[in-house]
Design a protein that fits this description.
With about 500 residues, the chain is mostly helical. The chain is built from 24 helices and two strands. Strands 1-2 form a two-stranded antiparallel sheet. Helix 2 packs antiparallel against helix 5 and helix 10 runs antiparallel to helix 22. The radius of gyration is 25 Å and the shape is globular.
């Protein structure tokens, strides 16, 4: 009698803890991972001793020190920093904590996949090797921004979805909802995560009422956070808005196409007339430059001190001298959002050509952005804040003679994203041609569908709503590589008999 699952995908019988610690092979793999991680961080900090800053760092730092409930960026990372600051003022320790969270979440994903699907070669050793030598994790951990924390939350979330497929429990349901709710407070990219989670939750063995709770819990938490943020923002700025940054981003995105279209005042609504006139003069001057501003230049227009949006902010500040800069961003955001959306609706094909297609290209070949070098010496932060957050934080930190190593290593990863996409698509096609859907378990097919859903929604969100840089796509790299190795293994694996499957399961239980 033939099974519909290959030898290497028989689920092992022992519990997860016993699978790791009672198995000699897995115990050695875990011990080696811990030892290599310690050595890797020690070597990394020898060459890159100081944590790196970006233009966002000052805002995170100020919000954490004041324990505020509002900010231009989501406050979840600032709350994490506030908690960290209660115990330590060491910038090295912050790097270590972020690195530990990343490594723990990555190997939780690795060992969970090994436990649930029991791969024997490509994934077990290939993906393990990637986690050991991957330089992205220490570099991401060495930044005073939310990327490392958000990536660790994303890896843990994906792993929990696999566990929901494998062994759904009420505790798992609650933990998943809480983690997803917190992930949204760290970065708004998580807004599409509940849609991805629908697949494993609805196709899991949960009872109907449990599925309803599993779907609604993260939604309720996210909606509650949105309402809370709107209220706190209104109390401070007088404008009941959730994300001031998103309003600015919409107008910024629309302005890429305005370099190429004829701007006239015909049909422009009265509420946009003044703004449109300013944009017209700005674009007229911009067109005289030797090159156009392209999507790969980042959010250029919203940060240009001579641009229309900064001009609106200055006008708001002059009219509301009792308001701070954050209140100004909130006060200008609704106009930016409305004007940007108006122009996008008026010129949808130009917006598609000059912004969406450019962003789609960046999705495959993202810019290195801050990962391209050590930025701290050129970031202008208030020394008082740095000194308050870190011990000796106000002392100058040199750029270092190994800075070019970072740009060299990071330059490899945009190409890796292209390669991973191509290999994943190729292996998926080969998997379908060789009838892998029939060879493998239902659980594995749902997990594959989960990966495709994440890729599709991540693409849509990234292209339509967010700037695309390498540090935002690290979770994508990890998933593409891991699933490609899994697909390769299951596609190449032969069918086995019942007796062979039982013998293999017994060997796994014994840790052989």
């Amino acid at each position: 009698m033939l099974l519909l699952s290959p030898r290497s995908f028989v689920t092992p019988a022992p519990g997860f803890g016993a699978f790791i610690f009672a198995s000699r092979r897995n115990g050695l793999l875990l011990a080696a991972a811990v030892i290599v991680a310690v050595i890797k961080m020690m070597v990394f900090k020898h060459f890159f001793p100081y944590i790196d800053f970006t233009s966002d760092t000052g805002s995170y730092m100020e919000t954490a020190l004041q324990n505020r409930n509002y900010n231009l960026w989501p406050i979840g990372y600032s709350k994490f920093l506030w908690l960290f600051h209660q115990f330590s003022r060491s910038e090295t320790m912050l790097t270590v904590v972020q690195f530990v969270l990343l490594e723990a979440s990555a190997f939780f994903f690795y060992f969970s996949v090994c436990y649930i699907f029991n791969p024997q070669s490509y994934f077990r050793y290939g993906f393990y090797a990637f986690l050991l030598i991957n330089p992205l994790f220490p570099f991401l951990s060495n930044y005073f921004i939310s990327d490392a924390l958000f990536l660790s939350l994303g890896l843990t979330w994906i792993t929990l979805l696999l566990w929901i497929l494998h062994k759904p429990t009420t505790l798992l349901l609650v933990f998943h909802g809480l983690l997803l709710g917190y992930a949204f407070t760290v970065r708004y990219n998580a807004m599409f995560y509940p849609l991805v989670a629908l697949i494993p939750i609805l196709l899991s063995a949960y009872r109907p009422w449990q599925k309803v709770v599993a779907v609604l819990l993260p939604v309720v938490l996210i909606v509650s956070f949105v309402m809370f943020t709107r209220q706190k923002t209104a109390e401070h700025s007088g404008v009941k808005i959730f994300s001031a940054f998103s309003g600015w981003q919409i107008m910024n995105n629309a302005m890429y196409m305005m370099q190429y279209i004829p701007l006239d005042s015909a049909g422009v609504p009265e509420q946009f007339a003044k703004t449109h006139k300013v944009v017209y003069h700005y674009m007229t001057a911009l067109k005289k430059l030797p090159r156009r501003i392209v999507v790969s230049d980042g959010s250029y227009f919203m940060w240009d001190m001579n641009g229309p949006q900064k001009g609106l902010l200055r006008d708001y500040g002059l009219a509301h001298k009792d308001k701070d800069v954050y209140a100004g961003w909130c006060g200008v955001a609704p106009l930016c959002s409305d004007y940007g959306n108006y122009m996008i609706r008026k010129y949808p094909w130009d917006f598609t050509r000059y912004y969406l297609l450019g962003n789609a290209k960046l999705y495959l070949l993202p810019e290195l952005e801050v990962l391209g070098g050590y930025n701290r010496p050129i970031i202008n932060l208030v020394n008082k804040e740095v000194a308050t957050f870190f011990k000796d934080g106000d002392k100058p930190k040199p750029e270092g003679k190994y800075n070019n190593w970072q740009s060299t290593l990071m330059s490899l990863f945009p190409s890796l994203i292209v390669i991973c996409h191509l290999l994943f698509i190729e292996e998926t096609i080969r998997y379908l041609i060789k009838k892998g859907v029939r060879k493998t378990s239902r659980k594995f097919n749902i997990a594959l569908l989960l990966c495709w859903a994440f890729i599709g929604l991540n693409f849509a969100f990234s292209v339509f709503a967010a700037p695309i840089v390498l540090r935002y796509q690290v979770l994508l790299i990890v998933l593409l590589l891991g699933y490609t190795l899994l697909l390769t293994e299951v596609t190449d694996a032969p069918l086995v008999t019942q007796e062979e499957a039982e013998a293999e399961e017994e060997r796994v239980m014994l840790g052989i």
